[in-house]
Amino acid sequence: IVAWVGQRAQQLGIKIAPPAVQLLARFVGSDLRRMVNEVEKLSVHAGVRTITPEDVRLLVADTSEEKSWTLTGAIEERDSKKAFRSLAELQQDGLPEMVILAAIANRMRKLIQGKVAMEKRLPDGDIAKAAGVSEKQVGFLKQAARAFTFAQLDDIMERLLDANVAMVTGSDPATEIQLLVADLTLAALSKPARAG
Q1: Distances in whole angstroms, Cα of residue 174 to Cα of each of 80, 168, 177
Q2: DSSP-assigned beta bridge partners for residue 51
Q3: For helices 80-92 and 63-76, what crossing angle results, to 10°?
Q4: Least CB-packed of 59, 124, 136, 160 within 10 Å?
């Protein structure tokens, strides 16, 4: 994708900084039709100057985050088929496995923080603040948090730590992230919590 963006920009006479190309590829992924539209939009915005990463952040929606949310949502639902499909899309888009791992860890931390706030019977605004989500997301957060016990969330965080250690000490990141998704969707966590 990165090479294609560079070639397309050159064909159109557009100057785009290499870090902007990298960011654009991460934000858009492998959707070439959308990529053409985004490059043309950036070109109009930048005019004759070189397109920068700041231009990309300003004008291009980061769909890699949406895809990460799809993955973490599938993990919460214990939907292995959807989770592996989403993981494959993220990997195809070139999102590094450590970034995927961080997205899963971040989502699970939010669930824990939300669950703690729920246990304290805090109002939705305080739950949102505690979990670092918008008030619009509180309903989804509460539903997801109810699907896990604290013990399950603790096990998940432990498994995420194990995956992180494995990746930084030499395990193949692609294999490790696939094993992680399998563990989180297929293993002992496959039954939603009844209480907690």
Answers
A1: 16, 12, 5
A2: 16
A3: 160
A4: 136
Angstrom distances, CA of residue 123 to CA of 69, 86, 107: 24, 33, 20
d(CA 30, CA 13): 22
In 3D space, the residue among 167, 145, 171 whose CA is nearest the CA of residue 156 turns out to be: 145
Arithmetic mean of pLDDT over the chain: 87
Task: Please spell the DSSP secondary structure of 65-133, one letter per residue.
Answer: HHHHHHHHHHHHTT-HHHHHHHHHHHHHTT--HHHHHHHHHHHHHHHHHHHHHHHTT--HHHHHHHHT-
The predicted pLDDT at position 190 comes to 43
Angle, CA of 25, 28 and 34, to the nearest 5°: 115
Chain Cα centroid distance, residue 19: 20
